[in-house]
Amino acid sequence: MHISLDGFAAGPTGEMDWIKIDEELFDYAGNQTKRSDTGLYGRVTYEMMDAYWPTAGDDPNASKHDKEHSEWYNRVQKVVVSTTMGGVEKDKTTIISEDVISRVAALKETEGQQIIMFGSPGLVHTLTNLIDEYWLFVNPVLLGEGIPMFKNINERIKLKLVENTAFKCGVVCLHYVKE
Question: Model's pTM, two decimal places?
Fold first, then answer.
């Protein structure tokens, strides 16, 4: 998840034009993504991803990242938490609109690789207690206001830093696990 130095996952109207990304960061994130067989999304993030990734790798001028992530996206299961997408059916896509916490907890217990969540700060707010690891890509920007990465946390959650990686573009990845 990309965040600003002052803890926002998006600007006040959801904008993410402040996020710095380069090939080095794409490769790093791509290695983590490859270890996952399920993508977990909120509706807004899913709609943004699904509008681009299914065919992104088909473009003759597609970057290495676009080809790799498009292939991954088309191969894995996608789980979307949404109260407004009920009845939508799509290959390799499950919509969860009720009992979100218990259904995601059950999903975590199934066999397979990791579940990875992209963006979706609202979903982070809902599922904070179920998240085992955080990969926070801290961008060198202060937004002053926006959609916070964390809110409505009812109890302390202790984390342990297991890795930090600084990228040439100025982003620092902090990898935490729940203690």
Answer: 0.90
pLDDT of residue 92: 95
For residue 152, which amino acid is it? N
Question: How much is the pLDDT for 120?
Answer: 85
51 domain-assigned: yes
Burial (CB count <10 Å: 0-12, 13-18, 19+), residue 144: exposed
Q: What's the pLDDT at 154?
A: 82
Dig out the tokens for 57 from the structure. Answer: 């790798």
Q: Total structural domains in the chain?
A: 1
CATH number of the domain bearing residue 66 = 3.40.430.10
Helix, coil or strand: residue 95: strand
CA atoms within 13 A on the CB side of 76: 26
CA distances (Å), 73 to each of 4, 41, 56, 83, in order?
26, 12, 10, 23
Residue 141 lies in a domain: yes
Domain of 140?
2-7+20-151+165-173
What residue type is assigned to position 174 of the chain? Answer: L
| d(C-alpha 162, C-alpha 164), whole Å | 7
Residue 157 domain-assigned? Answer: no
Q: Is 19 exposed, middle or buried (0-12, 13-18, 19+ CB in 10 A)?
A: middle
> In one letter, which amino acid is 142?
L
Encoding tokens for residue 75?
């191969």
**Which segments in the chain show pLDDT lower than 70?**
none
